[in-house]
Design a protein that fits this description.
The complex is a heterodimer of chains A (421) and B (786). Chain A is built from 14 helices and 19 strands. Among the domains of chain A are: 179 residues, von Willebrand factor, type A domain (Rossmann fold, 3-Layer(aba) Sandwich), CATH 3.40.50.410; 59 residues, no CATH class; 52 residues, 2-Layer Sandwich (Herpes Virus-1), CATH 3.30.40. Helix content of chain A is 36%, strand content 17%. In chain A, the strands form six sheets. A six-stranded mixed beta sheet of chain A has the order 5-4-3-6-7-8, sandwiched between helices. With 421 residues, chain A is of the alpha/beta class. Chain B is an alpha/beta fold. Among the domains of chain B are: 192 residues, no CATH class; 233 residues, 3-Layer(aba) Sandwich (Rossmann fold). Chain B has 34 helices and 21 strands. An eight-stranded parallel beta sheet of chain B has the order 6-5-7-4-8-13-3-14. In chain B, a hairpin with a 7-residue loop joins strand 11 and strand 12. In chain B, helix 9 packs across helix 10 and helix 14 packs antiparallel against helix 16. Chain B is globular and about 85 Å long. Classes of the chains: A alpha/beta (421), B alpha/beta (786). The interface between A and B is large, with 34 and 37 residues. Chain B: One of its GO terms (cellular component) is nucleus. Chain B: It comes from Capsella rubella. Chain B: Its cofactor is [4Fe-4S] cluster.
Chain lengths: 421, 786
Amino acid sequence: MSNQRKRLSGEREDEDDEDAEGIGEWERAYVDDRSWEELQEDESGLLRPIDNSAIYHAQYRRRLRMLSAAAAGTRIQKGLIRYLYIVIDFSRAAAETDFRPSRIAVMAKHVEAFIREFFDQNPLSQVGLVSIKNGVAHTLTDLGGSPETHIKELMGKLEALGDSSLQNALELVNEHLSQVPSYGHREVLILYSALCTCDPGDIMDTIQKCKKSKLRCSVIGLSAEMFICKHLCQETGGLYSVAVDEVHLKDLLLEHAPPPPAIAEFAISNLIKMGFPQRAAEGSMAICSCHKEVKIGAGYMCPRCKARVCDLPTECTICGLTLVSSPHLARSYHHLFPIAPFDEVPALSSLNDSRKDLGKSCFGCQQSLNGAGNKPGPCVTCRKCKHYFCLDCDIYIHESLHNCPGCESIHRPKSVSLMEE
Amino acid sequence: MIFKIEDVTVYFPYDNIYPEQYEYMIELKRALDAKGHCLLEMPTGTGKTIALLSLITSYRLSRPDSPIKLVYCTRTVHEMEKTLAELKVLHDYQVRHLGTQAKILAIGLSSRKNLCVNTKVLAAENRDSVDAACRKRTASWVRALSTENPNIELCDYFENYEKAAENALLPPGVYTLEDLRAFGKNCGWCPYFLARHMVQFANVIVYSYQYLLDPKVAGIISKELQKESVVVFDEAHNIDNVCIEALSVSVRRVTLEGANRNLNKIRQEIDRFKATDAGRLRAEYNRLVEGLALRGDLSGSDQWLANPALPHDILKEAVPGNIRRAEHFVHVLRRLLQYLGVRLDTENVEKESPVSFVSSLNSQAGIEQKTLKFCYDRLQSLMLTLEITDTDEFLPIQTVCDFATLVGTYARGFSIIIEPYDERMPHIPDPILQLSCHDASLAIKPVFDRFQSVVITSGTLSPIDLYPRLLSFTPVVSRSFKMSMTRDCICPMVLTRGRYVYKTNPDHLPYCLVLYGFTLWVVFFFSDQLPVSTKFDMRSDPGVVRNYGKLLVEMVSIVPDGVVCFFVSYSYMDGIIATWNETGILKEIMQQKLVFIETQDVVETTLALDNYRRACDCGRGAVFFSVARGKVAEGIDFDRHYGRLVVMYGVPFQYTLSKILLARLEYLRDTFQIKEGDFLTFDALRQAAQCVGRVIRSKADYGMMIFADKRYSRHDKRSKLPGWILSHLRDAHLNLSTDMAIHIAREFLRKMAQPYDKAGTMGRKTLLTQEDLEKMAETGVQDMAY
């Protein structure tokens, strides 16, 4: 492939010496994407639709991760109450255009998606944003539970300037997170696009400090592997990964959305005082304690001090009580009892018979499990109910639904299931 | 793991083995069976050392009736320690599986400076003064004197060692230098003399090349090794140079002045002895008349360096009459010094063969060839007689006698070159007289003759057929192994042109306008697509220098952590850095990474290296500017994040106008039929390979290599690179411009940052388990998956 690539770029040089600078942005996007190289032919010489092996691969990765988690023990304690700071590097290197249109835009786009996904999966957790610019770390937003506030702040500050400093960012985050209650999990996720860090002091000390304060640091690099990032992640138990392209970056970010296994020290059971505030009456006027603004309706009242807050979950600014709503608690529950990963069914002819009995369709979406050319496509099966599912349903069940439709239907009254048969 | 190679059961201390290690062992075993010499090239980072050690020790265990001895030669003390550490792991493993019968004695041997435990002796700053300080306390006459005079300081460690006499033995085990020192301190025995003594009993000896190749040292240390030894030269790509240096001497003005002072001192000593103890000089004279072996009756501690000529060339005769008396000998030396002084006064470069030099010496100073030949031994005998202990002060006269003996012994393969000044600085007179050896096979011949098997191995021995010719021996096995890898972890590229630009650079606008008027565009593409090279006629071209700079500027912004650059020479590096500084390129580089520069000063360089490593560690990133053939290029590893990219600027040819090199080339052409061009290219390319090979030291590592010179794209140059680099050098990467290189580098770094499977997938198995090996033994090695 690279041979081809070489020849292509060689030709480019020979031909369009004169009008080389005339390549428009749109044209260059195609030249760089090289989407034609992904086209494949099937046996009869027809063009296949774009190969989605990349997606299969991502699936595979996810499955692997689930498997390893399942192998480690049936019940993993997970940190459900997370205090996550997202650090985004807006230094000079973020202006590079190897991700289209630029690294900074791509980062912002995916961080936005990540924040939404994060709150969806961790309703009890809070997020804060920090940016690095000109060698200094700035707090964009403080810890809070409202995705909209964060996203608004993030989108407003898109410019890349100066050097980058890992140490400054870590110090700032560490300072912010030191006030967090002990049951909460401190985490920082750094999106790092620079390849060096200009620090005011010894970063190794800072790393040790983070380690001591149980701050789990994860880094996603945008260009290449850096030793210091790897070291930081190893020391603090975080993940380090480097994005190959935009899709990969998205996958890597979303890997951080499900709660990580709890750190042993925090694994002791703990009672947490929480308030379940009521929604304020429509039309009632009050000054909210978080923005200090007069608001009509919309808002919650702290059950202890009666202060008004705008969003849940949060911490009451007056009395410091953790405020949540009951659906938040319920949604966090599934992380503790995940569905066991489905087994992959090998696409062997010997299995065809058993599959015929099942009507060769996915139990979830009722689509045929046969792929192109009426050959058995890839599918998976639940260990408990032995129903077959297609790959799309597999992901949907594990990542959004958190219930196996097959197992759920077993528990129905016998008469109903008989009727179905 | 334990497995069988033919009839030898091999004990290998790890659970998995690389396929190339297994093949390496098979070849090595065949060479041992054939009792012949072999030449093996295997890339660094594939566990050469452990494969070697494990096979040879296992071979020894499987042949209990004819135990072989392993002599392992390394280039540096650091490598010696590493080898011994690996041997320790292996030894533990073998003992665990075989019990005490597998016990061996392995020692590392080094100079007094590295082994001494006497704090007072160690206080001396360099090697020679440590040696002298030791002699001051251990020489036999000093010790004899001290029985009468208790004020004379002796070394307790040596005294204890002497007292223990034959009982001073090391229990079996593997001793690193550190272990030896600890053992010596514990028992109160001198580790240096103990190690020297144990050489004849040890099963494995690890020491430096010089101990075997330099006849001065080898004559003392290695003379008792038996024929059934396997000699291994590790990292032996420069072995020909080591051999040549062992037999080359250079004399400067300073040397002559020092030698004159030494002679005066000797003269005084002689007078003093004449007055006090004339019998001693008389005895020496009688001994010389009888032609007794010169050092036959000396105790261990009085031993000196042996004769600089090779053992079989030394005459076993009595010392000629005209230098038997001490005064006469001093006169002869004085005449020799005078003659050399006259020769150094020359205005022109002179080149002479030893024969004509000796004959003109004979006619002008009246010193015969035979007299010359005995100079070194005679001096040694005299100094012993005069009981001189501070040998470090007498180095100049020793050098002169070295020279005399060599020039008197050899007529072929040497030449004498006198240069009135350094070629590069013609206004500073610095006359130098060099006796340079051109034939690497001279020094190594006794080693080949004496020992059953000699193994020459390194990461870069390409082209592998040239070494047997240079060293004139016939290997029974000569092979080059490839590296099996789970991923393509090296990325060599040949950069031939500068950047392909779309935009005009305002800096050059006026210049081009004046010169070319409206044909501005054409000018730009020419100037920036300029081929890059350090060829003599191109190296000072500002376009080339700028393109080299731009390459680095772009690279430092996309490569994380450490970047190493190698230049062809110090002067070229200085020039190019100065230019980069003027044009602001250096500043651009410094925005991304810190810059460190190798200098000729060792301390400065060590400090720079240290800071370079720190900058890489803390994430600041750094660039190291270094010189091919320098200290850094030879011995310092830039593995892992310390070197993600190495840029080789130009082809590191030797300084082709050097008289010594020209003389050597001529000799090689006449004697071995090796063409000048071939040798120069071979030498340059092995240096280049050595430089870029610094970047990768293990399979888990990854790194890029950029050969920035258009000459690398030519087949005759490229084909001389070692196979493991060539196999990764794709055709598409042979003729790159800067922007293409950047593109490739970006993709490579991203790819390498992904997690990978260490064991390799089914198709390319890179870690073999015991079962795999057993299966392979049945089906034959050919099926091995690469």
